[in-house]
């Protein structure tokens, strides 16, 4: 590259640099002249609103357009009327001509930062000349923060006894030069503090007072009585916050706190339940309370009185056992020296205890949805008129309380139905079950939840062998059961069940359909449909696990509404005839409802008669086989031998007499055999007629009932006939022996 080219490039770069520098110089000259000034008050007070003025002026020869003025506050400052978290506010000024100026006023409040300097900043953005990009000019200034405009003071004892009421005085004073309106005072109690009363009634709860207006120099005072319960030496803060409502926004303007410690009580008290600090009761739980007390002073305490108040709807007051006196007006137990002699005097350092026992109720007193999360509370006090020198109260006393939760309970029921129109699911198949023929059932899981909310609920059950899930399921909850085909397990997960669902209103319920396919292993026994159902959940109130289960479900269907949940009974012949007539009537009505033609009705009746004829032919063949296989027992008359039973040990004295006795016995046995055959034939004929009547029943369930009844009746008749036959034979033998005895004695046979 030659020198001329290099020289040309250098000249070009210099020219470009001159242009860039000229651009920025021109841009700066156009924007020059904007001034921003922040003017705060000389000094401000915490909680008292004040004004900050921000001014802008144009000292240039150009007009400024789209001027926007913004003020940014430090932490613990707020714009009045805006949320305390808002740190900046902006105002728009349309234009600022040459030599023009403008000013904006912002109302601000300091929420904290007593006796400090706080820096505030302001900025102005604007357009100048033909430049589209805006220019910015900023400024800063310090705000001197003095004390608080409103003072809240808490005067309280440095030490208090645990469980003993004490007073605290709260004062509220306006030390600013301005009047306040719409003021509030909110007390911040420690968890161990129990509010008892105050000289000015709270407006919200037990810790908020609406004070309204407070003029400059004005002061308000009131007292709060409360109880701190805690271990000796523990420290607690009793706090107070003053709040002001300004232009619709609430601002905390003063916070203060007093520290209180627990002193060693002159008389201490502690309550124990079942030797378990975290005991959780249930229905019908046995509760054994022990109230321990001790004298921590160097003087003897006399005439002590102990009171224990029972607070809780789950106490079964009828089961109370105590040596104290029960006062039903306020459910309190009182011990005095009259019923417990050691309370007449308690020596220095001496300890003692009283006890009582009671049970929880066997059922929850649930009447409304809000009747849940039951608690068992005992609030106890002990006092004596003896006052040690260091106790400022008029008597020596101590307080103690204990609070225990009552867990809820959940009931899971598993039921199966074949006819289940209420669920809206149609089951197909036959009952009784048929070999290798599928039959469907609906399974109902119902959950009734008592007294507490449940979370993470899970219901599980495995299906029986040869039982499958059809995929049909529904529930009245947000979820439905799911099926694991590999394990044959159904799982229903629910995130939450509110308390008392099912106690008040309908239970939480899921329905799913299964299909059973009986095999040869299921012949002669109830087929297992669903194995044991289990429910596991977490009691949201106690944190304990809730559990329940229900037994297996078989094809017996004890809950089937058509069987009444009982073992099927054997109907009489009249019932079978009535069922047969009802079946015929049902068929005719069905044909009429469908408006069938005459041909269709005739065909249906012919089909019914053919079915009845075929059934009768089958039954006739079975009865013939039964009749052919029946063999009446052969009766062998006993031989008359010398020395035989009933004889005298020698020859029969009168042979003609003995022959006559034998003939009589043979005639009676023949009559018994004839009666036996006639009765047995009558029983067979009766069974045949009943089986024929059963074959005419169209409904398979009723037909099965009729067949079982016929076979069962024949079995009973056969046993009765055999018994009567044996009795007749025994009677003939007894009479024969008596006749032989008469013959041997020279008499004649007994007629």
The stretches of 5 or more residues where confidence is low (pLDDT under 50) are 23-27, 563-577, 629-653, 747-751
Helix share of residues?
10-25%
Tally of helical segments: 5
Structural class: alpha+beta
Domain unit count = 6
User: What is the topology, as strand order, of the major beta sheet?
Assistant: 2-9-8-4-6
Shape: elongated
Q: What average pLDDT do the residues reach?
A: 82
Rg calculated over all Cα atoms: 51 Å
Main β-sheet: number of strands, strand sense, barrel status? 5 strands, mixed
Which range does the strand content fall in?
35-45%
Termini separation comes to 167 Å
The overall strand count is 40
Task: Provide a compact summary of the structure.
This protein has 751 residues and is α+β, with helices and mostly antiparallel strands. The chain is 22% helix and 40% strand.
Question: In words, what does this structure look like?
Answer:
This protein has 751 residues and is of the alpha+beta class. The protein folds into 6 domains: 1-31; 32-147, Immunoglobulin-like, CATH 2.60.40.10; 150-263, Immunoglobulin-like; 267-405, Immunoglobulin-like (Sandwich); 412-554, Mu homology domain, subdomain B (Immunoglobulin-like, Sandwich), CATH 2.60.40.1170; 588-744, no CATH class. It contains 5 helices and 40 strands. The strands form 10 sheets. The chain has a 5-stranded mixed β-sheet with strand order 2-9-8-4-6, with no helix packed on it. The longest helix is centred in the last third of the chain and has 45 residues, at 700-744. 26% of the residues are buried. Residues 23-27, 563-577, 629-653 and 747-751 have low confidence and may be disordered.
């Amino acid at each position: 590259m030659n020198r001329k080219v290099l020289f040309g490039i250098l000249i070009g770069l210099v020219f470009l640099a001159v242009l860039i520098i000229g651009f920025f110089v021109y841009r700066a000259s156009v924007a020059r002249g904007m001034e921003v000034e922040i003017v705060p008050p000389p000094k401000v007070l915490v909680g008292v609103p004040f004004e900050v003025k921000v001014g802008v002026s144009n000292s240039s020869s150009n007009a400024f357009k789209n001027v926007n003025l913004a003020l940014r506050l430090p932490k613990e400052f707020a714009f009045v009327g805006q949320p305390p978290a808002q740190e900046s506010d902006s105002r728009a000024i349309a234009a600022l001509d040459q030599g023009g100026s403008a000013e904006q006023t912002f109302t601000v409040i300091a929420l904290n930062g007593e006796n400090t300097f706080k820096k505030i900043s302001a900025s102005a953005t604007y357009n100048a000349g033909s430049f589209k990009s805006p220019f910015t000019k900023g400024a800063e200034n310090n705000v001197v923060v003095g004390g608080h405009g409103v003072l809240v003071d808490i005067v309280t004892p440095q030490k208090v006894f645990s469980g003993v009421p004490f007073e605290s005085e709260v004062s509220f004073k306006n030390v600013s030069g301005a009047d306040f309106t719409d003021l509030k005072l909110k007390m911040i109690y420690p968890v161990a503090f129990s509010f008892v009363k105050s000289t000015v009634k709270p407006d919200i709860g037990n810790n908020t007072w609406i004070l309204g207006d407070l003029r400059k120099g004005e002061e308000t005072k009131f007292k709060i009585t409360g109880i701190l319960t805690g271990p000796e030496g523990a420290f607690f803060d009793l706090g107070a916050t003053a709040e002001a409502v300004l232009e619709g926004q609430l601002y905390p303007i003063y916070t203060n706190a007093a520290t209180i410690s627990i002193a060693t009580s002159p008389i201490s008290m502690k309550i124990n339940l079942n030797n378990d600090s975290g005991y959780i009761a249930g229905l019908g739980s046995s509760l054994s309370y022990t109230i321990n007390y001790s004298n921590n002073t160097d003087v003897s305490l006399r005439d002590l009185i102990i009171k224990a108040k029972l607070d809780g709807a789950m106490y079964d007051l009828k089961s109370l056992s105590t040596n104290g006196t029960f006062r039903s007006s306020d459910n309190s137990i009182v011990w005095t020296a009259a019923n417990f002699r050691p309370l007449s005097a308690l020596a220095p350092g001496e300890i003692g205890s009283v006890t009582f026992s009671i049970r929880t109720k066997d059922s929850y007193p649930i009447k409304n949805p809000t009747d849940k999360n039951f608690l068992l509370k005992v609030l106890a006090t002990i006092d004596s008129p003896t006052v040690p020198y260091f106790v400022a109260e008029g008597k020596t006393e101590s307080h103690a309380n204990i609070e225990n939760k009552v867990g809820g309970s959940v009931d899971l029921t598993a039921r199966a139905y074949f006819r289940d129109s209420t669920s809206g699911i149609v089951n197909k198949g036959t009952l009784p079950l048929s070999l290798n023929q599928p039959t469907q059932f609906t399974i109902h899981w119902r959950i009734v939840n008592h007294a507490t909310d449940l979370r993470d609920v899970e219901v599980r059950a495995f299906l029986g062998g040869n039982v499958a899930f059809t995929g049909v399921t529904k529930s009245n909850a947000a979820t439905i059961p799911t099926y694991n085909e590999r394990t044959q397990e159904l799982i229903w997960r629910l995130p939450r069940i509110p308390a008392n669902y099912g106690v008040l209103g309908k239970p939480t319920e899921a329905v799913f359909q299964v299909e059973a396919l009986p095999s040869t292993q299921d012949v002669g026994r109830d087929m297992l449909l669903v194995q044991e159902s289990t429910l596991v959940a977490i009691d949201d109130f106690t944190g304990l696990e809730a559990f329940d289960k229900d037994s297996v479900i078989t094809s017996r269907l004890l809950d089937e509404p058509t069987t009444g949940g009982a073992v099927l009974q054997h109907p009489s012949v009249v019932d079978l005839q009535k069922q047969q007539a009802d079946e015929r009537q049902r068929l005719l009505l069905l044909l009429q409802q469908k408006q069938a033609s005459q041909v269709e009705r005739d065909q249906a009746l012919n089909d019914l008669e053919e079915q009845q004829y075929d059934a009768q032919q089958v039954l006739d063949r079975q009865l013939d086989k039964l009749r052919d296989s029946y063999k009446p027992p052969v009766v062998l008359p006993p031989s008359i031998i010398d020395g035989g039973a009933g004889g005298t040990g020698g020859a029969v004295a009168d042979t003609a007499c003995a022959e006559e006795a034998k003939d009589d016995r043979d005639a009676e046995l023949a009559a018994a055999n004839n009666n036996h055959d006639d009765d047995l034939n009558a029983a067979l004929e009766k069974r045949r007629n009943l089986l024929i009547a059963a074959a005419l029943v169209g409904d398979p369930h009723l037909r099965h009932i009729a067949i079982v009844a016929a076979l069962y009746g024949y079995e009973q008749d056969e046993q009765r006939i055999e018994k009567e036959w044996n009795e007749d034979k025994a009677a003939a033998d007894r009479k024969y022996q008596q006749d032989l005895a008469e013959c041997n004695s020279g008499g004649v046979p007994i007629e």
